[in-house]
Amino acid sequence: MKQISDTAALKLAQHQGCIELKGLTDLAQSAADGLAQIQEGLILDGLLDISIETAKALSRHNGLLSLGGIRDLTEELALALSAHKGCMSFAGLCRISDEATFAITHTESELLFEGLENITADAAWYLLQQGKSTFRLDHDYIAENKFVISKLFAKHREEFKDLSKKELQGIVDAPITRDASLVDCHEAQFRKVSANVLLREMARALEAVTAPEAEATTPSLKPIPIGFAKLAPHELHRLANTNPTDESVVAAGPDAVKRVEVTRDFARRQLAELNNPARLMGFSGEHSDKVQEVQKTADDLGYKGDVILGHSDTEPLVVKAGTPEKGGNKQFSIYRDGNGNRSIVITRKGMKDHAATLGDAVAAFNAGKTSEAATASEIVPEKELESCDALIPAGSFEMGDSLDGVAAALPAHAVQVSAFYMAKYLVTKGLWDDVRTWGLTHGYPDLVMGRGKARDQPAVSITWHDTVKWCNARSEKGGLTPCYTLDGSVYRTTYHNAVVCNWNANGYRLPTEAEWEKAARGGLVAQRFPWGDTISHANANFLGSWRESYATDTGSYDPSWRRDTGSKPYTSPGGAYPANGYGIFDMAGNVWEWCWDWYDAAYYGSSPASDPTGPNIGSGRVVRGGSWNNNSNNCRVAHRHNGSPAGLTYINLGFRVTRSSIT
Asked: Residue 331: helix, strand or coil by DSSP?
């Protein structure tokens, strides 16, 4: 059977149990609509390719969906399938792009990959972050891809924190104890696996122990403290410019060369995350010989601003620089951050003739070719972005809805919420950094760096636990009473699920799920969104939907934030879209927002009628609001989602704060 008719598909949908269609090699959208109604497993391993329309239809299936014949998963196909809920298996998938991986990992389904042969470090990290993906990595791959190792290290920093050199050496020398030559990577197995191969390779990659023979041959290299936490900026600069092809290094052997490469790359990454005061930023072995030339050219041209060598090694610096203005080209761009500061970014292509490129860039910078760029007066003042003074009045509202038949939003029910204050804007990267810097020297040693495109853009890639600790740090920094405690003491470090919230404290905290939804509705009743019943890019930063009739922009990101010279995340600054009835911005789209509550899909059936704070326990914390990378249905005010409080750090996930009182 190469094809199946619409009638036959509908008849199969009435079958109780798993359906396997072995000979099916061609599936039309209309037939897929019928098969999607099957309640249990649907095995379609004979399909070598499917259309986007067919994929959209199959995404409505909620059981096991096996597409073992698919060999190449494109970004468009991944986006079409990402609405699936249940479990998706891609046993025959040979390769997947970074873009497709990022798209597919936003599904609520468990993902099973067995045959991946070509996968980048970024793609591997997206799968690890998704938390419901099972795939395999070769030991050599783990050892060679330092980016993945560095991310795993950040996730498991506590496992290294108190180890002595002797213990670290023991890890480095430890044999691999697994029988298989492959490592199964799944969130639930991280701790178990890291006891051998991952832990060993992380220790090696970070150069926690320096081989005596290598140090004797290259005396200029010091043992590298874990995460470079103890190195001064000038030492990081020295390491970032170390040349692994230097004669003395090469003479020490391949291990020494590899060690220099690793330390150099990590130093560059660390520098990219610091508030680097240098005028000329960005390091690359490919262009290291031109750094001084670029600096001299800038001086000769009388340019006194920052120059960023904008290639892959320095992406965090480009992100920090802000948003690209109009008027750039493939050789350079002019970036503007949230404070109105401008800088020049030279692309990899522009470095081929850097003198000419910089000349054109400086001319554009001085001429102010910013006809469509934001002016300083259009940028929301930083103090305004930090405010938390939008009063959400006490009263009852209808939580959930039956507009689109989403089970987790049912039953719609009346909830009484006490008055509280909410931040008008999402927590920005600038505010996150300011509080984090204070916290690191005031009892909050492990607040993560997070990510963000500029100071006025949302802070993202932050776990629930880190948002809670950060709220306490901001409270203490401002002389307020912290809301969160652990065993009776202020919660400042490590990850614990037994954190308690003092709802009467006047410090900063996450909203409850009920508070969030009341604030998001902005006083409206029985509407899908904070402003009404339909959505477009005039209202919110979201990924245009192909399915919902209430979305007028379909199948694409908001072009305002997806530019050829830009990079993910496609977030937008505070105030870029209209506020809702309570004066609050971005309650739909831009980034998902953490809430206090544990998630339970059936919670509405037993939720208290007044000030509910969620179940007592669970496996995931509530996230709300959708994002720049999600379809319109995820942006509905009643849509509910959740994520691991210790493991979920997507680049489309941030938060905003609330206060019970501002006195």
From this structure: coil
State whether the Cα torsion 502-507-513-517 is positive or negative: positive
Mean pLDDT, range 6-24, rounded to an integer: 85
Query: Which has more confidence, 313 or 531?
Result: 531
Cα 82 to the center of its chain, rounded Å? 16
Pairing between strand 110-113 and 133-138? parallel
Whether residue 242 has pLDDT greater than 60: yes
At 365, which helix (H) or strand (E)?
A: helix 354-367
b/e map of 118-139 (b: 16 or more CB within 10 Å)? Answer: ebbbbbbbbbbbbbbbbbbbeb
Which has the closest alpha carbon to 3: 46, 38, 56?
46
pTM (2 d.p.): 0.53
The angle formed by the CA atoms of residues 519, 522 and 526, to the nearest 5 degrees, is 105
What is the strand order of the sheet 489-490 is part of?
Answer: 489-490, 484-486, 500-501
How far, rounded to the nearest angstrom, does the alpha carbon of residue 437 sit from its chain's CA centroid?
21
**What is 217-253 written as a DSSP string?**
H-TTPPPPPGGGTT--HHHHHHHHT--TTSHHHHHT-
Say how far apart CA 587 and CA 579 lie, in whole Å.
8
Q: Name which of 618, 631, 551, 557 is nearest 592 in CA terms.
A: 631
Specify which of 130-134, 199-203, 242-246, 441-445 reaches the highest per-range mean pLDDT.
Answer: 441-445
**Which position has the token pair 């809805």?**
401
Query: What would the pLDDT profile of 418-438 be if each residue is shown by its tens digit?
Result: 999 999 999 999 999 999 999
CB neighbours of 220 closer than 8 A, spacing ≥ 6? Answer: none
Confidence of residue 551 (pLDDT cuts 50, 70, 90): confident
**Is the confidence at residue 29, as pLDDT, over 60?**
yes
The CATH number of 380-657 is 3.90.1580.10
Cβ-proximal residues to 154 (8 Å cutoff; 6+ apart), any chain: 448
Q: In a 3-state reduction of DSSP, which class is residue 449? A: coil
Average pLDDT of span 22-30: 89
**Token pair of 62 as six digits:** 């909620």
Q: Which two tokens stand for residue 182?
A: 């492959």
Report yes or no: 174 and 196 within 8 Å, Cβ to Cβ: yes
Rounded to whole angstroms, the Cα distance separating 178 from 149 reads: 19
Cβ atoms of 353 and 338 closer than 8 Å: no
The H or E element containing residue 138 is: strand 133-138
Q: What is the mean pLDDT of the chain?
A: 76
Peptide bond preceding 411 in cis form (omega within 30 of 0): yes
Residue 173 confidence (pLDDT): 56
pLDDT in tens, 243-267: 777 776 677 777 667 666 766 766 6
- Listed by start position, the domains of the chain span 6-205, 212-273, 280-378, 380-657
Tell me the C-alpha distance between 160 and 229, whole Å: 13
Polymer length in residues for the chain: 663
Helix (H, G, I), strand (E, B) or coil at 344: strand
Residue 647's pLDDT is 75
**CA 329, CA 200: separation in Å to the nearest integer?**
44
